[in-house]
Amino acid sequence: MSPLLSLLLIALLLTTPTSAWKKEEFRDCNQTPFCKRARTRTPHSIPSLSVSSLSLSDGAISARLIPSQPLESPSDSPPDPPRALILRLSVYTPGALRLEIDEDYSDPSAPSYRRFRVPDVLLPDIDDRHKLYLPRVSSDSPGVTSFYLPFGFEAVVHHDPFQIQVRRASNKEPVLSFNSHGLFDFEQLRTNKSDGEEWEERFRSHTDTRPRGPQSISFDVSFHGADFVYGIPEHASTSLSLRPTRGPGIDFSEPYRLFNLDVFEYLHESPFGLYGSIPFMLSHGPKSSSGFFWLNAAEMQIDVLAPGWDDPANPSSNRIDTLWMAEAGVVDAFFFVGPETKNVLGQYLSLTGTPAMPQHFAVGYHQCRWNYRDEEDVDTVDAGFDSHDIPYDVLWLDIEHTDGKRYFTWDKTLFPDPVGMQKRLAAKGRHMVTIVDPHMKRDDSYWLHKEATEKGYYVKDASGRDFDGWCWPGSSSYPDMLNPEIREWWSEKFSFENYKGSTPSLYTWNDMNEPSVFNGPEVTMPRDAVHYGDVEHRELHNAYGYYFHMASSEGLVKRGERKDRPFVLSRAFFAGTQRYGAIWTGDNSADWDHLKASVPMIITLGLTGMTFSGADVGGFFGNPEPELLVRWYQLGAFYPFFRGHAHLDTKRREPWLFGERNTALIREAVHVRYSLLPYFYTLFREASTSGLPIMRPLWLEFPQDKETFNNGEAFMVGPALLVQGVYQAGEKSVSVYLPGTESWYYLRNGAAYQGGVSHKMEVFEDSIPTFQKAGTIVPRKDRFRRSSTQMVNDPYTLVIALNSSKSAEGELYLDDGKSYEYEEGAFMHRHFIFSDNKLVSTNKGRINVGKKKFSSECLIERVILLGLSANAKKAVIEPGNVEVDIELGPLSLRAGSSPVALTIRKPNVHIADDWTIRIL
Amino acid sequence: METNLRFSLLIALLCLIAIPSLASIPSRDSLGISPQDVSYYKAGVIKCKDGSKKFSRDQLNDEFCDCPDGTDEPGTSACPEGKFYCQNLGHAPLVIFSSRVNDGICDCCDGSDEYDGKVNCSNTCWEAGKVARDKLKKKIATYQEGVVIRNKEIEKAKLAIAKEEEELSKLKNEEISLRDLVSKLKEQKERIEKAEKEEKLKKELEEKRLKEEAEKQAAKEKESIEASLQVEPKDAKEKAPEDATEGGENGKKAEVEDEGASHDEHEILSRESSAEKFAKMTGNQNEEINSEHAEEEIDKDDSGHAEEEIDNHKSAKKPEQVSDHSSDSDAADVHSEAQQHESASTAGLSKEELGRLVASRWTGEKSAEKDENPKDESLKESADDVAEPAEEEGNYESYISDMDDDRYKYKEEESENEYNGDSDEEYADDHADTAESYKSDEEYKNDHSEEISTTGGLSWIDKIQQTVQRVFQSFNFFKTPVDLSESSRVKKEYDDLSSKLSKIQSRIHHLREKLKRDFGKDKEFYSFHDQCFENKQNKYVYKVCPFKKATQNEGHSSTQLGQWDKFEESYRVMAFSNGDRCWNGPDRSMKVRLRCGLKNELTDVDEPSRCEYVAILSTPAMCVEEKLEELKQKLVDMSSSQPASHDEL
Description:
The complex is a heterodimer of chains A (920) and B (649). By secondary structure, chain A is of the alpha+beta class.
């Protein structure tokens, strides 16, 4: 290139606004041999397998899968003759069929190397706790074996060609089927290396030595009775359901890719893989839901096939076919029978674990920026929240706080007194989070690097040396988190002795754990890097960040002597991450489309177990106009994880920097969150027990209402609140569909709106449309403090929205907000029921569940009654027969709000007690 | 019951602290109420301040929010919008958000915001108050002195402005006369030129005729001698008109320039030579890179965290980076040619280079910031060149020299012409007047002292008029051949006067622009016009020139942080905007907050947000009398509320 031309190009570059996603840097399906191979196959085009030697042992089924027909011409045959595969089927409560297919390692021609099975994702005790002992199998006809599944389902194995179906036992209606299109393909391990692209692979400047040759697996799964499928995060999309990726009318779409990547300026609408992967898909139709989970951490590509994909003349209806392809690993898959979505979630989480109960402070608002530069900056921002009366709970420090991106250290010039700084925050009940990434600076004077090198704790490259990649600190190595011993070692680093300058109010942020490797293929680790147990990186890639998150979380648990719940935010995630902490949707952008995409993204995460998640409020890249920022706060206040964050190059974005009006609007949005903290915390409890998400798709609450099935713009927070985002600048009105037959109360003015229809709602700058479902009770705290810490003794407000039969119910969970004593009974779970003109509070928690107790002195200062006729004037409290006033009051205590709802004034009953308030 | 408990606790607390002056214990009725509001709450039925409803005395501070604006709960946390007043005897009273009441954190120095017994706040008002009073006293002293300085400055400014206004009106008159003279001279000159031309023509004809004659009479030697005698003066005469033409053109050019369109001409020149410039630029590429490296070295030396910084910013700095950038897919997205190139070139990168390249996407701005000067600048400029090669010939050379030289330096010694010639490119056309105003008044006066000085009986313009008159009179158009000495005198006179005119016009322009400036309500910022304020922070020197621009200088390179925009927040802030572009960020800008101080002093330069700078300038101009009175009153208030038991130590 001539110097002149290069100059021209530089010039062009610098005048062009920063462009987004670099498509050519990432592989598409055609550039990914296993995906290309699998995707070009037509149904039943490959030699089929048949089931033989099926037997029942130990309550589970095992069998061999062998080729149905002998192989044809020898010239077409692979270098190694095919071996039989081992098939296992087992059943778990509360409703899962497990399918395992692996090599037969007892075959003498099998290589000594074993395929990778992802460890430590399934709960260790699932076999003890959930495995059902199958007493027998039956055979309706020859070549067909069936057996019992819970909830009135059964599994059917067709022997030749091999196929599995889950169906209703009563009417034999299929629910899920495996290999019904004959696309199951299992590339067996080979010892002879052949030529061609199947072995060594090149992508851009990178070569994957692929010493073990092709070993991919693909198969088809069909969801019957399904209108839509959902799940398999993480992808950015404004659509809640998964759009078809192949079939009639779909020309250029890629399959959904699950491959954890650090994507610079990702698009808001793309099937390409982002930071995390959960290979779990749910289907939903008006009659039922079902789910499918493939425990496999290698790169995965999933096609959602449009009706008619196999036969355009004859499109199937009432069924969604999917094609699953993975580069390596085994088949270890779970079919969840449902029949309701809540059941599917419970079935999935009974295996991968329910979400952890977070620290109470973590449910508040988090203030982050890359970077708060120094202690003075931290103090100034902290003081800014105080002087503008905006509550917040956590201040975050990004990479620049460290001594040269050496984690667990501080930049001594900028942060000479980290302990003092944390104490100043802690004195106001606030917490701090610092970043700890997995890339260790290769610097011999860095103690952590020295230790990891000496102990041989780093991931190795293909040649066996410590893998050396480029990340923030420059040349870096990555601890091998697959190894439990290394995770143990890593977790020790969080102790107060090891992490100098840390205090008990300091928590953790794991970023870049996909892992991000700037000079690696697709900005990640080469697939031929080698982990503990001779596992190739390709086999566990999607779980690397998970193990890292796990070790960090365990570090905080240990630091607190198992008395303090950890808080670790991670960017990468995998199935099971919900047990270790929160995640966020990574480096989004400050534009309206990303605001809009955040809702389907977070709902999808919630549907796949990741209930504690959020998107960067304001957008990470770029500068949001004030209106967008305000709308983002109004929406973000309902994200399970509520954090404002911004890129290094952006303008300062603290809430008070956009004029008085916008400051007030943001304050109001944050106040909405803080007033709902009791409700949110109760929802977190529900998530941690039943796995129900906090942010829910409407159809989770209204499973029969087809209108809601693909609504990605509105969502439910728990069972009671419906929130409709505003996704455009200058929006004057939005159409809100309110599902169900009961009415909804608009929380801006208490007006009732009819359910089952769409309403055109005028949009105001001060809020986004939020409704409370008739028949629910929401506990709130309407006093605002610096942080949630100071709210602990504040009184409650109950907001009761009566349904058509003038009744409602709700609950409130509380505990100490930080320890594990709730596991031993130290919590309070109240149940409120309103009916027959009286409100009754009873204990919902099991009595004598443990030896520890929790008590609260909090009162209820106000009960707001929506939907009660306006003539009530008095109420009487029992026990005690105390009379209290009922008057008209506002829905929220904001200047200018008008009295719209009957309010029981100062009942002052204890939240901990049983009582009845009777309306006279 | 509950309330009783609360108050007995409060009493206990107060007894514990034992402040005799707090004999009047606040009751529920007065809790959190400011003295001005006491009477408001006297009534039996009280209105919410926002008029929304009424409440009874029982509902005052009863821990239940009746007024959404908080009127009924000044002393509790029940209303989110409420305010709590603490008396803070011994210190200044404080109004805090209701959210601070009984939240377990002591906010009022008298501890009155925490009365529920959950925490014990000791009364620190006297100690804190003493510190505050001492600080306030110092501040008052500064203001007192500052007010005097400020008043003097204002007087000076008013005189200076009056003088300048006077000068301006005089100059305007002079301009009119001078323009008249110049146009007369021009006319005269043109007539002379015409006459000369005619004469020349005549001469040529004559010459021709003579030549023919000479040929005819070739044989006659006597005549041939005569002919040769006539040729000699003709040569001399022939030369003269050419000079005159040149002079005329110069004169015209000066006029054009005076009307502020000089750039057109430069642009034309530059268009002609853009090819040549490109050649130079590409030839000099290596030089650029070297100087980047030099900068990197400086970084290393100056920074306490040299290694990390380099690590962070390495990405865009390496020499290879030039080609990296050229092949980065930023361009690829819009440029398919570049896209092809990128894969080829990233393939050629070492692992480390690739790592740096990818890292620089997130930190690009950061690395760019380090080397934007000169690199970013140079690239920007070359980009402009590519788009429209319309800059003057000297541009690139001046750019190169700028790198070694003080590029944006306030060029105090340079004359206007030099200034324009050297650095035009830094100031786009619309900033031409800014450039002009860079010349301080003193310089102008020096340059023009002889002309402007009005010593002697006649004003200089009168003298000139006389001179011109003489020139006109002495020149005889009817005399042929044209008197050479007279003709050149007219031309010289014309040249002198038009140059003088252009100087006057430029001065007028300068004064007009200056007087149009907003120097504050009392013209207190007048003296800022010709001053710059500097502050050194590590390796950077920040320079703020009010009404002009703000720069960040590092060694010989300079980054413009903003051009003068305006005063903001009623003269409390000076805003500079549209500075040099930031990679992936906004154009740089700077806000200088003004504060009362005895000297003009720039401090606390900071970049709280990428490419948005702030600084504080202490100046007597901010020491206003009203504020002084306010502070004095505050001190009186603070001192009067001191408890009897405490004497000032």
